[in-house]
Write a structure and sequence with these properties.
The complex is a heterodimer. Chain A is mainly beta. Chain A is built from no helices and eleven strands. Helix content of chain A is about 0%, strand content about 55%. In chain A, the strands form two sheets. In chain A, strands 2, 4, 5, 6, 9, 10 and 11 form a seven-stranded mixed β-sheet that branches. Chain A is globular. Classes of the chains: A mainly beta, B mainly beta. At the A-B interface, strand 5 and strand 10 of A face strand 4, strand 5, strand 9 and strand 10 of B.
Chain lengths: ~120, ~110
């Protein structure tokens, strides 16, 4: 009965490869997010989508491309992986976004290691 | 710019003592301030939040205070227990997009 789920949980890959991470929420929320948590535990917003529309697009290399096939899913595709992409990637969701006061619920994270 | 400063970065207390973590934010328009607890290898979990129309909120042993004039908010944990040990993050919202900027985290260790 997981509210926000991500796959895979762990991802180990070689530099230069392309990989995808998937996120799904069953809360009926309209807004989903991707965060990156680096080795120093800094948690930083990357993207958000509201009902399949891109809302937040932070200064992220264009090797990162989010895709939202429907409002319950938000995937993250990463091209030409680099060593610095190694991190934990968290998906989150909220009921909406327009009030700026919506609680965000996090998924379990995907631990990406680029060798 | 968008910035949230959090102090201290580490905090060690004895079981039963109180713990206080402080954050400051840069945008006076910020109106939502959640606190998350992250245990090792786990997801951040919301423990309490406060919106700008209130100055204080309490939930059992946890309380948050907000001073909008000073752009400052704090987390207070009373009667700490070993299971309170974790990294705690404050955050502040920016703009109408529900964008959260997180503080750098506080590693709280409660010694039994």
């Amino acid at each position: 009965d997981t509210a926000v789920s991500q796959t895979p949980k762990y991802l180990v890959t070689q530099m230069g490869n392309d990989k995808s991470i998937k996120c799904e929420q069953n809360l009926g929320h309209d807004t989903m997010y991707w965060y990156k948590q680096d080795s120093k535990k800094f948690l930083k917003i990357m993207f958000s989508y509201n009902n399949k529309e891109l809302i937040i697009n932070e200064t992220v290399p264009n090797r990162f491309s989010p895709k939202s096939p429907d409002k319950a899913h938000l995937n993250l595709h990463i091209n030409s992986l680099e060593l610095g992409d190694s991190a934990v990637y968290f998906c989150a969701s909220s009921q909406g976004q327009s009030s700026g006061q919506e609680t965000q619920y996090f998924g379990p994270g995907t631990r990406l290691l680029v060798l | 710019g968008e910035n949230v400063e959090q102090h201290p970065s580490t905090l060690s207390v004895q079981e039963g003592d109180s713990a206080v973590i402080k954050c400051t934010y840069s945008d006076s328009a910020s109106n939502y301030f959640p606190w998350y607890k992250q245990e090792l290898g786990k997801r951040p979990q919301l423990i309490i939040d406060i919106r700008s129309n209130v100055g204080e909120k309490k939930d059992q042993r946890i309380a948050v205070t907000l001073n909008k004039t000073a752009k400052h908010f704090s987390l207070h944990i009373t009667e700490t227990q070993p299971e309170d040990s974790a990294v705690y993050f404050c955050a502040a919202s920016y703009g109408a997009t529900n964008k959260l900027i997180f503080g750098t985290g506080t590693l709280l260790a409660v010694q039994p």
